[in-house]
Each structure stands twice: as structure tokens, then as C-alpha cells.
Amino acid sequence: MGSSELSIETICFDVLGIIKALRYYKKCDLALNVFEWIRNRPDSDKLVNRSAVAVIISMLGKEGQVSAAASFFHNLHNDGFGIDVYAYTSLITVFASNKRYREAVMVFKKIEEEGCKPTLISINGEGLVADCDGFSTTSVGTSTTWCRRHLVLHGGGG
């Protein structure tokens, strides 16, 4: 690895560290501004770690800004920013934690449509299974059926 690659990787992790620190101090707006400032640079694709997207989505969700988290995610996706499974998982968790199960399932289906391989956390959706026993989530093939059953059990749909 060359020195320029190393310095770009270091900057990328520094940006992630700054965003995480701002999350810790509950400075969500400032974290978003830092992200957008870096993203508006011509070489931003090299400077923004995709993990930062997941951190910002989670941060917005914890502050109760569910619509802002969804909007942030969708704007990045529409702009062609490379969204990974961790960003999807963060959005699923945000929706599930706020009892918006139908939207969580829709995001999960989007993971499948995009060809991303869901993680176990994506399948479980953290808040989605927190209070549910009796449905197997051990294979991705049964996960959509499980999510639909969970929605019916918890009044989120039919």
C-alpha cells in the first residue's frame, strides 16, 4: 500500500472518528454538516467511509428523527452513493425501534432486491425480534416470511 493510499485511508477513519465523537456528544446536526462538507469535495468517494453512513442513520434514529434518517439514506442512494448492508441494517433498526415494522420490512425487501446479502442483524432487525419467539430466522429464505408474521403479531399489517 502506497503512502497516498495510507493517508487517504487514515483520513477516512479520522472522518469516521469525528462523526462518532459528535454522535457521542449528541451533536447530530454538526455530524451531518461534517459529512456533507466532506461529501461535497471532488474526491469525497475516497474520504467518506461507508460506516459513517450507518453511524449517521443510527444517530438520527436514536434522536427520534426517523424521517430524517430515511431521507438521508434515500438521498444518498438516489445520488449513487454506495450503500452497503450496514446502512440498510441501521435503517431497519431505526424503523423497528420506532415500531415502524412495515417500513422495516420494506427496507429488508430492498436489501434482497439490491442483491446485498443480509447480515444476521439485518434479518433479526434488532428491535424486530426483541420480543418475538417461535419463528426461525436462521436462513435468509425464511426471513421475509418471518417478518410478515411478526408484523401480523404486532399489529403492523396483515
Automatic annotation (TrEMBL):
Keyword Repeat appears in the UniProt entry: yes
Q: Which domain of life is it from?
A: Eukaryota
Keywords, A to Z, come to: Repeat
Could you tell me which residues the PPR repeats occupy?
84-118
Protein's name according to its UniProt entry = Pentatricopeptide repeat-containing protein
Pfam families xref list: PPR_3
PANTHER family recorded:
OS03G0856100 PROTEIN, OS12G0638900 PROTEIN
UniProt record similarity statement: Belongs to the PPR family. P subfamily.
Q: Which PROSITE patterns match?
A: PPR (PS51375)
NCBIfam families cross-referenced by the UniProt entry: PPR (TIGR00756)
Q: What is the lineage of its organism?
A: Eukaryota, Viridiplantae, Streptophyta, Embryophyta, Tracheophyta
